[in-house]
Amino acid sequence: MGDRLDGHEVRDPHDLHTRVEVQLDQAAEEVARRLAGTRSYGVVREAVTDAYRQLAARAKVHAFLPILAARLALQRLQEVR
């Protein structure tokens, strides 16, 4: 649990980054599973990370970005087959 400031919880930004990385790992695992071994995990993880960065640069709300990044990465990787 984070510290409190004026009655509001203040989260450690490192903790938030760690959570996003875990979500991106999970997203990449799901995309890799859906691609049934046609791409290595490293290629899939890189595609998910790139998609996440692209979406995050324009997003106002970041809550669902790992899911959206997974969908975008899957679409891109399927197009390259």
**Count of individual domains:** 1
In angstroms, what is the radius of gyration? Answer: 15 Å
Distance between the termini: 44 Å
How many strands in all? 2
CATH topology: Helicase, Ruva Protein, domain 3
Description:
It comes from Saccharothrix mutabilis subsp. mutabilis. Pfam families: Phosphatase-like_N. InterPro entries: Phosphatase-like_N. With 81 residues, the protein is mostly helical. The protein has one domain (14-80): Helicase, Ruva Protein, domain 3 (Orthogonal Bundle), CATH 1.10.8.1060. Helix content is 69%, strand content 7%. It contains three helices and two strands; from the N terminus they run ββααα. The protein has a two-stranded antiparallel sheet. A hairpin with a 2-residue loop joins strand 1 (3-5) and strand 2 (8-10). The chain starts with a strand and ends with a helix. The mean pLDDT is 87.
Short description:
The protein is mainly alpha-helical. It has helices at 13-34, 41-58, 65-80; strands at 3-5, 8-10.
List keywords for this structure.
two-stranded antiparallel ribbon, mainly alpha, 81 residues, Protein-tyrosine-phosphatase-like N-terminal domain-containing protein, 69% helix, Phosphatase-like_N, Helicase, Ruva Protein, domain 3, 3 helices
